[in-house]
């Protein structure tokens, strides 16, 4: 079977339709990454491993409990905030910021101030509240409350001991302090005398903080940001760079059905049509991911995908190998 190679990629948009701006950004990001690596560019970020192996939903599941499965790994998210389960691009980007701050500063207490404001502006491209309850600022605030109020269980049910997965009914955050003044300051520039006036913060639970600092998965925040037009592409990117950090030989075919359980919450039950729909969406996302991460060697087969040894997108930190 042929290996998917970035030089053969093309985007099959309908004739006469312009390429979306965020797709152009993906292509521009590829050129920037080729010119300068993540560490040199100051775009080195991290994600908690548990939320890469199995991911958050793409759309509002409108339920109090959400489950993902990846082989013997199970992820369960329980809503701890009346708004519901976190979903979409905002909690993914927020989680990358929280995980990165925890790793960089080695503290579970993350201050919400100038650093978060810069992240919202530079990585999320949010410059203003967007106005009203449906504005981008309001949506981020809502997702922040959903994310930091969630209760998660990351459980490995295999016969081998999976060191590191000790998340059993663990809150992502023990405490979230937010008030209207702080939220307003996140979207609008502060006056010099107001800087540091508000000290809002999130305190990560000890279990989740330990997962962040003991098993951080390095990513390039430029790539993660560029793919924000597709939450599925964001997840495929982090999964691939994580898998390639320990893939030393050609993998067995990873079938579409288990991939759908891991990534495809919006495709319903495992009917033949649902699997076909998921396969189509996954391959579209993979094509985008390979633009920013062309070193990933992936074979696409009728039954699934095969991973070949590849250089990780960001060099891994000296942490333990994994089984997934």
Description:
By secondary structure, the protein is α+β, with helices and mostly antiparallel strands. It has one domain (3-308). It has helices at residues 21-35, 38-41, 50-53, 89-105, 114-122, 136-148, 180-187, 206-214, 221-226, 231-243, 256-263, 272-292; strands at residues 3-4, 44-48, 65-70, 73-78, 109-112, 151-156, 167-171, 173-177, 200-204, 216-220, 254-255, 297-300, 304-308. It is globular, with a radius of gyration of 19 Å. InterPro entries: RepA_C. This is Pirin.
Question: Which helices and strands occur, and which strands form pairs?
Answer:
Layout: E1 3-4, H1 21-35, H2 38-41, E2 44-48, H3 50-53, E3 65-70, E4 73-78, H4 89-105, E5 109-112, H5 114-122, H6 136-148, E6 151-156, E7 167-171, E8 173-177, H7 180-187, E9 200-204, H8 206-214, E10 216-220, H9 221-226, H10 231-243, E11 254-255, H11 256-263, H12 272-292, E12 297-300, E13 304-308
Antiparallel strand pairs: 1-12, 2-10, 3-4, 4-6, 5-9, 6-7, 8-9, 11-13, 12-13
Helix pairs in contact: 1-12, 4-6, 10-12
Radius of gyration: 19 Å
Tell me the fraction of residues in β-strands, as a range.
15-25%
Largest sheet data: 4 strands, antiparallel
Name the assembly state: single chain
Number of domains: 1
* Helix/sheet category: alpha+beta
Tally of strands: 13
SSE string, helices as H and strands as E: EHHEHEEHEHHEEEHEHEHHEHHEE
Gross morphology is globular
Count of individual helical segments: 12
- Percent range of helical residues: 25-40%
């Amino acid at each position: 079977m042929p290996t998917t190679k970035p030089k053969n990629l093309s985007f099959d948009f309908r004739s006469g339709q312009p390429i979306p701006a965020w797709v152009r950004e993906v292509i521009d990001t590829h050129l920037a990454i080729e010119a300068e690596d993540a560490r040199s560019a100051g775009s080195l970020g991290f994600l908690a491993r548990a939320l890469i192996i199995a991911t958050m939903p793409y759309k509002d599941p409108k339920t109090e409990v959400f489950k993902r499965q990846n082989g013997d790994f199970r992820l369960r998210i329980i809503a701890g905030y009346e708004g519901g389960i976190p979903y979409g691009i905002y909690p993914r980007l927020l989680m990358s910021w929280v995980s990165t701050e925890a790793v960089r500063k080695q503290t579970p207490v993350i201050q919400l101030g100038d650093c978060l404001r810069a992240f919202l502006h530079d990585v999320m491209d949010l410059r203003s509240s967007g106005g009203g309850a449906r504005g981008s600022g309001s949506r981020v605030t809502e997702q922040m409350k959903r994310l930091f109020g969630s209760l998660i269980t990351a459980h490995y049910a295999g016969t081998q001991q999976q060191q590191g997965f000790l998340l059993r009914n663990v809150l992502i955050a023990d405490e979230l302090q937010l008030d209207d003044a702080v939220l307003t300051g996140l979207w609008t520039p502060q006056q010099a005398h107001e800087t540091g006036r508000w000290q809002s913060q999130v305190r990560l639970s000890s279990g989740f903080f330990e997962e962040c600092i003991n098993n951080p998965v390095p990513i390039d925040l430029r790539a993660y940001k560029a793919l924000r037009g597709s939450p599925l592409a964001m997840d495929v990117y982090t999964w691939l760079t994580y898998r390639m950090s320990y893939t030393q030989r050609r993998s067995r075919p990873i079938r579409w059905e288990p991939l759908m359980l891991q990534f495809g919450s919006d495709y319903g039950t495992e009917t033949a049509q649902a699997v076909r729909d998921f396969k189509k969406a996954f391959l579209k996302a993979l094509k985008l991911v390979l633009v920013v991460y062309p070193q990933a060697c992936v074979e696409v087969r009728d039954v699934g995908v095969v991973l070949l040894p590849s250089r990780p997108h960001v060099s891994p930190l000296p942490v333990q190998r994994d089984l997934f």
